[in-house]
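Archive maintenance. Older records in this collection stored only the sequence; we are now back-filling the structure field for every entry so that each record is complete. The fields below show one back-filled record exactly as it appears after the update. Entries are processed alphabetically, and Demethoxyubiquinone hydroxylase family protein is next in the queue.

ARCHIVE ENTRY
Title: Demethoxyubiquinone hydroxylase family protein
Organism field: Saccharolobus solfataricus
Length field: 116
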Amino acid sequence: MDKYKLALLGEAGAAGLDRGFSIRYKIFRESYSNEMYHWKYFQKYRRSFLEKPVYYVFSILGFIISLFGIEAVKKVNEIVERNAIDFYKNNFNEDDEDIMRILEDEKKHFAMSVDA
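Back-filled structure field:
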């Protein structure tokens, strides 16, 4: 699978998780909005019939995780965002303006888990 399809499905999953988290924790609304932007960005390069199922499965999973409390949400978010940052740094040109913005957003999302 190519890097654009992985990024597309990863952002669909991240948007779903943040959607599920934001039902109980409003602080995740902005990161949900960012992840939706990232998802739409990668739709310019690839599409997949798996996008919507991944989004909905991860939305449900995000809500279930939120039932375990904010610490569980922070831990999952930390893992997801750390891996997203690593993925973008390893697979995309960090000098690209759009990728740079996505990386900045992912770093802000990561900071929500480790600083908050």
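Update note: The mean pLDDT is 95. The radius of gyration is 13 Å.
Entry marked complete.
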